[in-house]
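Exercise (ungraded).
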Amino acid sequence: MTSVTLPSLLPLWILVVPLAGATLLAAASRHRQLLGPITLGTGGLCLGLVVVLIMAVRQGFQFELALMELAPPLRIVLRADALGTLFALLIATLFPMATAYALRYMGDDPRLGRFLALVLVSQGLMLGVAFAASLMTLLAFYELFSLIGYVLIVHDRSQRARAAGLKYIVYIVVGGVFILTGVILVYFLAGDLRFVPGGLFAADASQRHLLTAWACFMIGFGVKSALMPLHGWVADAHPAAPAPFSALLSGIMVAAGSFGILRVVFEVFGTSVLTELGVMPWLALLAGISAICAGALAVGEDELKRRLAYSTISQMAYVMLAVATLGELALVGALMHLSHHAFIKAGLFFCAGLVAAGTGYTRVSQLDGLGHRMPRTGVLMTLLALAMVGVPPLSGFLSKWLLGAALLADGSIVSLSVLLVGSLLAAAYLWPLILRIWLPLPGPPPADADAGEPPSLMLAMTATSAVITTLLGLAATLPGLPLELARLAAATLLGGSG
Amino acid sequence: MTMLSALVLLPLLAAAALPAIRNSGGQNALAITTVVLVLAGLLVLAPTVIQGQILIGSLPGLLGRFHFQADPFGLLFALVGTLVWLSAVVYATGYLGDDPHRRRFLSVCLVLLATNLGVVLAADLLTLFVFFELLGLVAVLVVVHSGSQEARSAGITYFWMTLAGGIALLAGVMAIQAQAGSLAWQPLPEAVGAGWRWSIFALLLVGFGVKAGMVPLHIWLPAAHPVAPAPASALLSGVIIKAGAYGLFRCLNMLMAPTPETQAWGETVDMGLLLTLLGITTLLIGVVLALGQHSAKRMLAWHSVSQMGFVLTGLGVGAFLAADGAMATAGALLHVVNHALFKSCLFLGAGAVALRAGTADMYRLGGLWRGMPVTFACMLVAAAGIAGVPLFNGFVSKCMIHHGLVEASQREGGQILVYAEWLYMAACAGTVASFIKFIGLIFLRKPQQPKRVREVQPALLVGMLMPVVPIIWLGWRPHELLGSVIAPALADWGVSAQPITYYLEHYFMSGQDLIASAGTLAGGVAVFVAGMKFGWFNLQLPQAVGVAWWYRKLGTGLVNLCLQLSCLAATARAAAPGTVRRLYRRLCRALRRDVDGLTRPGTHEPYEDRLFEALDQQRDRLLVAADRLAQKHKDQYPGDALINGTHLIAGWLGTELVQRAMAGDRRSQRLGRDEAFCQKLASRAVEVAQKQLDAGLDGSEMQEILAELEAALGTESDHPDHNWPERSWPAELAAVVLAPDRAHWPVSERLAQGALVRAARGRVRKVARDLSSGLLIAFVILLCLALALRLLKLPMP
């Protein structure tokens, strides 16, 4: 499908709405009763605009807007194509859920207003990443939201949060430097920074330089997407951050790294250049190691949020595994996994927050018999955990199916085995949760036997993610849902290379 | 929406509605009505399907739709399954009594019915996989229904086996999708090579074999079936494990069957041989272990393993004989039907016995035929069926499989099956012995229990009686089922139906078969007598012989490996060489200063932040108290004069208090939090404000109050040159700008000129240091960049 590019302010509006909301929040942060309406109103408005955008993108339109020129070659350009729109849909859905959750989760935190404002700012910046039309734009928004991420991770101001935040910022800054290097190299090699499906480089570009640029991008974005040797910050940052932000961290922020890699792979280098470079098997190798090792580490981890963080590393490695095949089906699978994982993992982090809010427990070994005290939380957690393992007909199964079938069609039997062993490991680290929640070993009743269900708003947001998870599995083919956008995006990205 | 999709959907909707019903009568009615409706629907469809028409239907889901189709085999499995469901649900309505979880149980039963229908009516492999996996995982809920520790450990085993099988099956289905390009039920294209065929077969064999209880994947079955409530055991053993057999049947006779053009069976023959050997192993191990059980339910569970061995043997032999395998295949299919009938009946009966007698241990029961005559009669019929007594249904199917086995052993490459035939007969004899033991110990011998046992409620009896009629009918007249349903359908698939008609005409109830049957019966009696006499039934094998022990070792080993990996990662971090660690720590400290300084100045001392907040709160508390007091006297003075005056004075007092606290005066810190002290100061502030308004006092009154405050604190504090806590200046600036109500708090001159200035100067110095180090880092990075560019010999701009 050929798409028509139109100049439009729509991407800018989508991006500005959360930022404006953040400003309003900052001004009204002393009036607590205003926080909820402003946050939710902003989220709703932004989601509405994204829905409008999706309707247009489905018709084959793209929107582009040249925002400003930093220096002659360095333009900040926004463009809403299918891939960006898919990512924007994730952002615009998950952020309001997380903020609504935070309204109750951090209800007695005097700095709630600040937290919400910063979350909205980072939503705006993330949308900027989604709509970036050139490496320069991507870099600018990417670095900014990474920095905001630091402030949100250390929100608790505890010793632990600050240590985790420090680790995070060091990783991210170093990664950012590598991305910057990569961007500069690309500019020198190709003379352009726009994203073009099929790649920017001429056929006679120097292999050595290309390789260096590729390595820079992999290190830079790999840090964010938690590729294995660069994953150090993930397991520390997730448990330290407040639960709603952990959900975003896992669902969106880590995905942003993979999103960056997708852009670089398909729209900067292009499949033919990468095939010639022969780097993809190495990416697949790293991703395979990530998937298995992180899964194994998750099995051995007792702290719930850390376990989930390792699970994120393992799951996001599947995306890289699929991208490494450079196939169109695999790309659809990867995008589906990215979207489905976002909702499932966010839901699981919400559950971890519910447990912590209801009982104060943060460890898997403390969950014994929880289902009988907090049945709704227990049911939601079970459902989401099963989705993560990939039990049909939930969305986790669908993306696993798409990924697996695509990998096998490409003849990557090893990658498929990694995927299947990974889901066995996923069962190994999530089954103990389910088992402990519903079937405790006999023993003295726990101290918090009278703990009840947490506030209904938090529960409602967790239930929303569970409902989305089920819906995306049962009715993935409905128009405007990730599957359609992913197919459109894959066709656009790979159409250019023939 | 076609009839088929409605049939699958109906139990799901009923299951969703059931928890909303509070009274148990309504729940029972809904559950039974639903199953009856499904059964009726299937019966309505049956004539059309038997005439050779294939019905289709679909439901939306996943990537488009779930497709269903009803061909004779699917419908046969569905009908038998639903019949067993009806008897189990009717039984359950009485059996559950006032079980606290009865709603959950009935609801889960209906979901299982829907998923089972989904499996047997699936028109493609993806639909089959989805419903198969759901069937397996939802069944966990009935396995762990009682919540006991035994149920827990059975549930764990069950979950893991189901999951592992599911993953193998998924891989197999993916392979079919990749190789054949389609997931419909049709022979794999010729282009798929032998390697892929074997891989697909192996994966599907594991996936379906787990569910079918095939040795060595059977370990969950004898653990899970006995711990479930009796009606659930009947469903698990009677129907759900058949889903595995159904899958293998479809795999061998459809996927692996030759395409109509070529008629070359190729690898399928060898696959059949493999499956036959596995089947023989399964039936033998099942029987031997069943003989050693004390609990009736465990014994029946082991017999399920063994009987599935018969089915697998039949399917294997059928595939081995390729186009001539109709007799064995039909025998296997008939045995599936038969086993569903008698095993569900047996489990229901064992449940009834356990309910009334309080134990399922055969060695502690006896003489129940007096107290429970109807149950006894049902058990007798079902036992005759499973033991293969002529005129009962098991006899027919076992004979058919046996004939197939004999024929296969005469084929080329099938010599090994000669021994298999002996083992087959031995297993039949073992089954007979086992059920002589079952009937003899529980019902016929002298009563062992002290009190007399009564017959169970009518609902349970109805449930047990339902399968009895078909057991006898199929023993007398298998012709309709075999000749009119199974044979033509097999013929449609390119398997000659001639052996089936031949069997019905020449072998059924022939002298040869009756003699063989009499031989196994005599052998069974001999085994029973010898076993009881020499105590063979009490022998215990060492744990390491059982495959379950090895699985457990493997499982715990893998989990331990994961734990080891975690430990390794942790120790690797801790055990880095000393210098590296020191360097890392120093770097961390330096970076923390910079990073913290750049992003949120002054936060490296969170204690002071907290102190500031606490002090602010003290001052606010005093202000609020004073405000409240002033409101009471407001009417006596014009406008807001009194409020303003009080505010001013209380603010002054509060600031003084805060300043003292900051100066390190712990007493004022403590007193500031004291409610009574605040009240006292507040009332003093109101008093002074009133005086001021009444008489226009001068500043001396203020000095007086301060002196009082001094006295209250009881210390001579002259603000020593204290260590002023640093607070971020942007934050302070923001506080002044954004919080106008705080801006007019009076600040004493001493503070303004001394400590504040010093603090501000310190802060500026710190920010400058942070900025400069940040710049330094940026510079170093740029330098590295330039160096890298130079090394790469890029053209510099």
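Further reading is listed at the end of the chapter. For now, observe: The radius of gyration of chain A is 21 Å. Chain A has a mean pLDDT of 88.
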